[in-house]
């Protein structure tokens, strides 16, 4: 049913449609009429939802800050998992990964050639020379925040340090490209261009995603792409950008043993950084990093 100008806005703000989303919807419609893929209303968060997601994201950042203090040579990933669980629940949150589609732990910790979804274990000890990704999702009052960071343990080789640094640069370039009325393809193009210019390959199969009301929402955010292609980006969208960049080939495989751990096929190192961002009328806001 088409809304009238004086009807209540679809976003449940309580405002009249003409004073809320009418102008933006008309602009989106003009893009749709020229053939662009445009977001559905479900992908656009209202003010109440944004406030809740911002609080969950704030706690998510606090969790990452806490775990950063404990990441060091000699600690087990199982111990890091316990520390994260205890801290999160003590702040009134819930670790998002715990029991998500059967995942057994509270955090994903991925070391060296593990691209993502590494399962913490008491027998897995951080060693000097490792590069480590810690991927944290936090649920707070029903809302979700999601981010990951890389860590270099002890004496890390220069080529691994460079991989970590360039991957962070890829993320920041992708975030800079995530502008209102741009396209998701602009993000992927910025990331992939920088990775390939530095001799690296971006993982194709795994991308960013909408987040906030659930762990994974639409849209899917590819880390490769072409300018002006894929979905239109509009204010109110919240999604992750999380490039996974490989030192060797782009190909990855999922463990047949645990069904979760994703590794590079050639067993060369991989790195990942992740932000959750909110698209604003004038740019974007990093909610958690």
Structural descriptors:
alpha+beta; three-stranded antiparallel beta sheet; 5 helices; 23% strand
Question: Can you tell me about this structure?
Answer:
By secondary structure, this protein is α+β, with helices and mostly antiparallel strands. 28% of the residues lie in helices and 23% in strands.
How is this structure best summarized?
The protein has helices spanning 22-33, 47-68, 77-90, 158-177, 184-197, and strands at residues 94-95, 108-111, 114-116, 131-140, 143-152, 201-202, 208-210, 217-221, 238-241, 244-246, 252-254, 262-264, 270-272, 275-280, 283-288. The chain has 289 residues and is of the alpha+beta class.
Q: Report on the biggest sheet.
A: 4 strands, antiparallel
**Percent of residues in β-strands:** 15-25%
The global form is globular
The number of helical segments is 5
* Portion of residues within helices: 25-40%
Query: Helix and strand succession?
Result: HHHEEEEEHHEEEEEEEEEE
Over the alpha carbons, how many angstroms does the gyration radius reach?
20 Å
Count of individual beta strands:
15
- Look at the helices and sheets and give the structural class: alpha+beta
End-to-end gap: 39 Å
Q: Give the uncertain stretches in residue-range form.
A: none
Mean pLDDT: 97
């Amino acid at each position: 049913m088409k809304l009238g100008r004086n009807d209540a806005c679809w976003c449940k703000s309580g405002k009249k449609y003409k004073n809320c989303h009418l102008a933006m919807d008309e602009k989106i419609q003009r893009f749709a009429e020229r053939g662009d893929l445009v977001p559905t209303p479900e992908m656009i968060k209202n003010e109440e939802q944004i406030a809740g997601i911002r609080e969950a994201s704030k706690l998510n950042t606090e969790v990452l800050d806490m775990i950063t203090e404990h990441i060091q040579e000699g600690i087990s990933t199982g111990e890091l998992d316990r520390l994260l669980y205890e801290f999160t629940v003590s702040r009134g949150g819930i670790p998002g990964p715990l029991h998500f589609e059967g995942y057994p732990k509270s955090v994903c910790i991925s070391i060296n050639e593990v691209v993502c979804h590494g399962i913490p274990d008491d027998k897995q000890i951080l060693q000097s020379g490792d590069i480590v990704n810690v991927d944290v999702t936090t649920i707070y009052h029903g809302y979700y925040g999601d981010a990951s960071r890389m860590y270099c343990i002890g004496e890390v080789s220069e080529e691994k340090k460079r991989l970590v640094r360039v991957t962070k640069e890829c993320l920041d370039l992708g975030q800079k490209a995530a502008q209102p009325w741009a396209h998701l393809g602009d993000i992927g193009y910025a990331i992939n261009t920088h990775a390939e210019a530095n001799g690296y390959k971006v993982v194709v199969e795994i991308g960013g995603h909408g987040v906030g009301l659930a762990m994974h929402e639409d849209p899917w955010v590819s880390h490769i792409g072409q300018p002006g292609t894929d979905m239109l980006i509009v204010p109110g969208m919240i999604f992750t950008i999380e490039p996974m960049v490989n030192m060797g080939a782009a190909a990855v495989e999922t463990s047949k043993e645990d069904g979760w751990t994703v590794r590079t096929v050639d067993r060369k190192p991989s790195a990942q950084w992740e932000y959750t961002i909110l698209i604003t009328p004038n740019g974007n806001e990093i909610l958690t990093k």
